[in-house]
Design goal:
This is L-lactate dehydrogenase (Cytochrome). Its EC number is 1.1.2.3. InterPro entries: Aldolase_TIM (IPR013785), Alpha-hydoxy_acid_DH_FMN (IPR012133), ATPase_NBD (IPR043129), FMN-dep_DH (IPR000262), FMN_HAD (IPR037396), FMN_hydac_DH_AS (IPR008259). Keywords: Flavoprotein, FMN, Oxidoreductase. The structure is a single chain. The protein is of the alpha/beta class. It folds into 2 domains: 113 residues, ATPase, nucleotide binding domain (Nucleotidyltransferase, domain 5, 2-Layer Sandwich), CATH 3.30.420; 343 residues, Aldolase class I (TIM Barrel, Alpha-Beta Barrel), CATH 3.20.20.70. 42% of the residues lie in helices and 11% in strands. The strands form 4 sheets. The chain has an 8-stranded parallel β-sheet with strand order 7-14-13-12-11-10-9-8. A 3-stranded antiparallel β-sheet has the order 2-1-3. Helix 12 packs parallel to helix 23. Bound molecules: flavin mononucleotide.
Amino acid sequence: MFAGPNNIIGVDSWAVDYALLRDGSMLDNPFHYRDARTARGVDAVHARAPHADLYARNGLQFLPFNTLYQLAAERQAFLEFADRLLLIPDLFAYWFTGTERAEATNASTTGLFGVRDGAWDRDLLSTLGLPAKRRTPKAAFDYTDGAAEGELSLARARHAFEDIEFHPGTRRPAEHADTSVEILGGPSALPFGIAPTGFTRLMQTGGEIAGASAAAAAGIPFTLSTLGTSSIESVKASNPAGRNWFQLYVMREREISYELVRRAAAAGFDTLMFTVDTPIAGARLRDKRNGFSIPPQLTLGTIVNAIPRPWWWVDFLTTPKLELASLTDTGGTVGDLLNAAMDPTISFDDLAVIRDLWPGKIVVKGVQNVEDSVRLVDAGVDGIVLSNHGGRQLDRAAIPFHLLPQVVREVGPDATVMVDTGIMNGADIVASIALGAKFTLIGRAYLYGLMAGGREGVDRAIHILRSEIERTMTLLGVSSLDELQPSHVTQLTRLVPRADTK
Ligand SMILES: Cc1cc2nc3c(=O)[nH]c(=O)nc-3n(C[C@H](O)[C@H](O)[C@H](O)COP(=O)(O)O)c2cc1C
């Protein structure tokens, strides 16, 4: 670097390496391109985009340290926490000038820059799962991506899935992996369904309709939340022949809940999912920091954040108003409705009343210990979902995937035990099925796809999970899901309870 008489500063550095920042501060020192971690990234990237495809897009010879490989080996939590990536020369430029920019020739070394149009390759970013954050305003992204308090439950749940060891048999790999299952009296082409999520149109205006129609195309169940932003009837219209499930929060004013139950039954939804982990809302600190409001307001902060994402706002402001579509007839502000939604006094008696109202299957979601699992199965529910709400309620609650083997042992092999929280890869789903889950639910894995690309993004997310499931099954040497056994998986643990506290 040299500061000459004209006050020009040149920055000479190696390309491809980068720093991750949040609110202008580096999260960690950059890794050097020679760091051995990038080898992992090469496999991960080529599994989704072979080098020939990459070459056609970015015109780069294969160099294992290009930024896209480094990013694929990056720590997930850092990628999620960062709000900016700067290549090293751009980082120096930022420090000197305060301006965050990506210089084009340097950007071309990332592998993520189009050789033909000289612009960021959004399709490739989407294929590699990197773009949702870029397309969605910070408050809406954080509402989706975030969890409660220190977000430890979510991080631990994801670690739990990373920390498994698979044990393939020595048999010849199965030629075709059949991913279909029977669940709650009906078929599903894949061993997962879409979890209920509130305010889904906030993330991308396609919202529940994008989710339900993608579920219809994939032949998997879609679950509509009580706090959904598309109506029961419109979800049915988007998934007319497929399976729709309805998630119920029991309101303080019980009649509101009962009316929703009747509407869902009339629309032909086949399963009611009764959520029990939400006596009050968890402390979502990112939402507090962002001043997150529903519906989102155009404030100075949101306008600044909207500058790189104008289409989200154009879309948001030109499509139907965001509201709780199943509850529009009940009056009150959205805040009033949210308060009404959470009733700390719900009990097994509510379950009995709903049983009388609902002709289909009843599932309890948010079960977090062995005793409740046994009690609910004994009480005759059709299924339970081991879940801590994606870490959004009680932080540091037990990891559902860790509870799974013990719960299955206690309730017996015939009970329908499902699991969610932290699923980001088809291999997570295969491991859950091997350890006795009959089915799984995906929340954020679907929402990231939705934020990145609307309906097509959800299709893509389902496609990626399906190919991961098929590949994992084939490599394990099983051709159907019921061949999966606990012996195919060992759960390793990072945090072990101290002997004297048990
Ligand atoms: C943005 C968001 C909104 C959610 N809203 C609801 C809801 O309205 N009702 C509910 O029972 N669960 C809700 N959940 C929890 C999901 O149904 C599911 O349990 C959780 O997302 C699973 O964890 P995962 O995101 O790691 O897959 C929500 C989750 C997210 C991420």
